[in-house]
Amino acid sequence: MKIISLFAGEPRLLETATEEKLRTAIHKSSANSLRITKQGIQGDDVANTKHHGGPDRVVCLYSLEHYASWEAEYGHPMQTPGAGENVLTEGMTEDKVRIGDMFRMGTALLQVTQGRVPCRTLAVYNNMPDLHLRFKETGWTGYFMRILEEGTVTGQSAVELVSTDPAACTVAEANHILFHQKEDAAAARRLFQSPGLAQVWSELLSARLR
């Protein structure tokens, strides 16, 4: 597991290849380090507060491994960062990381809370039609993390898995349950019981179970 790149950025009006204008923070700039607090990353913010931001969704991670697959499928490079991620990693794909996993990155301690819910901005920004739907189909969504201990992460920081629960859902499993198993009460219950799950997903699953 390692950090490849770090990114931060504020929301702004973005003109796309289709001349559509979007107010979004997906277009972030490279950063040498990130100062991370429990409420957010300094110099970083979100535009869509329904699916991003808040104490359960401070840091967004995405995997370098997925870039080549998307670029091969669509025939041209993704933007960087293509998923609006703060941390681009290697060796931390959704099938290897569990809800509730705790990672030490630099001086910060972070906990995985939920998969990233993909929106149409991904497709428009990358000029890759229906990319947000392909994110859901594959489960290659990236994921969010809350901050248990504030600190600073640099591009040279090591990544250490501090705690994991083998019974918890992987992010890939969590995505599949949320997006594709809407009538499966047993699956919903298993995800609901995953320690560390984001409050918004807990509420959604609770309503589904009712």
Descriptive notes:
- The protein has 210 residues and is of the alpha+beta class.
- The chain has one domain: PK beta-barrel domain-like (M1 Pyruvate Kinase, Domain 3).
- The protein has helices at 64-74, 121-126, 131-138, 171-180, 185-192, 199-209; strands at 2-8, 12-15, 21-24, 29-31, 33-36, 59-63, 87-90, 102-105, 108-115, 143-149, 151-154, 159-163.
- The protein has an eight-stranded mixed β-sheet. Strands 2-3 form a two-stranded antiparallel sheet. Strands 5-11 form a two-stranded antiparallel ribbon.
- The longest helix has 11 residues, at 64-74.
Please tag this protein with its features.
210 residues, alpha+beta, M1 Pyruvate Kinase, Domain 3, eight-stranded mixed β-sheet, two-stranded antiparallel ribbon
Any chance you could write out the topology, listing elements then pairs?
Blueprint: E1 2-8, E2 12-15, E3 21-24, E4 29-31, E5 33-36, E6 59-63, H1 64-74, E7 87-90, E8 102-105, E9 108-115, H2 121-126, H3 131-138, E10 143-149, E11 151-154, E12 159-163, H4 171-180, H5 185-192, H6 199-209
Parallel strand pairs: 6-7
Antiparallel strand pairs: 1-4, 1-7, 2-3, 5-11, 6-10, 8-9, 8-12, 9-10
Helix pairs in contact: 5-6
Pfam family, one: MOSC
Protein name: MOSC domain-containing protein
Domain MOSC: 28-162
